[in-house]
C-alpha cells in the first residue's frame, strides 16, 4: 500500500499502523460488498484495533472510506508506475495503462473492484492514475504526438473508457482481457490523433509484467 515518510518514534509508528489497519479494513469492505453502512465496531474488529482508536484517526466513516478510496487509487498509480519505467512515448504510456489495468483483475482484484465502483467520481482526482495520465496527455499534445486540444477533456474520455474496461474485465472474466484492453487502447489512441496503423502497432508492443 502507499506509504508516506516513516514515523519518527514508536508512538508514531503504532499510530500509523493503526490508521493503516483501519484503511485496509475499509478497503476490504469496499472491495467485497461496496457497503459503507458497516458499523464502526465492525470496521474496528476487522482492523483488529480498539473501537476508541477509530476516532483518534477519523471523524466519521465517510472520512475513512474516502481515505480508503484515495489509498487504493494511489496504490493503483504506483503499480502502473513501477511497470512503465523507461517508456517515453506518451502513446505507449496510455496504451500500457489500459493493458496493465486489464491484467490487474487477476493480480490486484481488490484495487480493480474499488476502481470499478468508486472511480467515476475520481477521474479528475489528484491521486492515482489520473494525474499521471493527465501529465502524459499534456506531453503528448505539446510534442504533437496527440492532436486533441485539451488534455483535461481528453482525460474525461480516457478515464471513462478505462472504467468501462475495468467493468468489462470484472463482469466478463471469460473474455480475453489482453485483447479487449488492446482494442480499447487502440480506439483511444485514434481518438487522440494517431493514425490507425500507428495506434495498432503501439498497443501490441511487448508489455512489462506486473508484480503481485
Automatic annotation (TrEMBL):
Tagged with keyword Transcription regulation: yes
Start-end of DNA-binding region: 39-58
Entry protein name: TetR family transcriptional regulator
Pfam families hit by this protein: TetR_C_40, TetR_N
UniProt KW keywords: DNA-binding, Transcription, Transcription regulation
Highest rank taxon of the organism: Bacteria
Keyword Cell cycle: no
GO MF annotations, alphabetized: DNA-binding transcription factor activity; transcription cis-regulatory region binding
InterPro entries: Homeodomain-like_sf (IPR009057), HTH-type_TetR-like_transc_reg (IPR050109), HTH_TetR (IPR001647), Tet_transcr_reg_TetR-rel_C_sf (IPR036271), TetR_C_40 (IPR049513)
Classification of source organism: Bacteria, Bacillati, Actinomycetota, Actinomycetes, Kitasatosporales
Domain HTH tetR-type: 16-76
Amino acid at each position: 500500500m502507499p506509504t508516506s515518510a516513516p514515523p519518527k518514534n514508536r508512538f508514531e509508528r503504532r499510530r500509523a499502523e493503526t490508521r493503516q489497519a483501519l484503511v485496509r479494513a475499509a478497503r476490504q469492505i469496499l472491495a467485497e460488498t461496496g457497503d459503507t453502512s458497516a458499523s464502526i465496531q465492525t470496521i474496528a474488529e476487522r482492523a483488529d484495533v480498539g473501537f476508541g482508536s477509530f476516532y483518534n484517526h477519523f471523524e466519521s466513516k465517510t472520512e475513512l472510506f474516502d481515505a480508503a478510496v484515495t489509498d487504493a487509487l494511489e496504490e493503483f498509480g504506483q503499480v502502473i508506475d513501477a511497470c512503465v519505467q523507461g517508456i517515453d512515448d506518451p502513446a505507449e504510456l496510455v496504451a500500457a495503462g489500459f493493458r496493465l489495468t486489464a491484467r490487474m483483475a487477476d493480480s490486484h482484484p481488490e484495487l480493480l473492484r474499488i476502481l470499478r465502483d468508486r472511480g467515476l467520481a475520481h477521474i479528475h482526482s489528484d491521486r492515482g492514475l489520473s494525474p499521471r495520465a493527465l501529465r502524459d496527455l499534456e506531453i503528448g499534445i505539446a510534442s504533437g504526438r496527440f492532436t486533441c486540444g485539451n488534455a483535461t477533456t481528453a482525460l474525461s474520455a480516457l478515464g471513462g473508457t478505462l472504467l468501462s474496461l475495468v467493468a468489462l474485465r470484472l463482469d466478463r472474466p471469460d473474455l480475453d482481457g489482453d485483447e479487449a484492453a488492446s482494442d480499447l487502447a487502440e480506439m483511444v489512441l485514434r481518438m487522440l490523433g494517431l493514425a490507425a496503423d500507428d495506434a495498432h502497432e503501439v498497443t501490441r508492443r511487448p508489455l512489462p509484467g506486473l508484480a503481485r
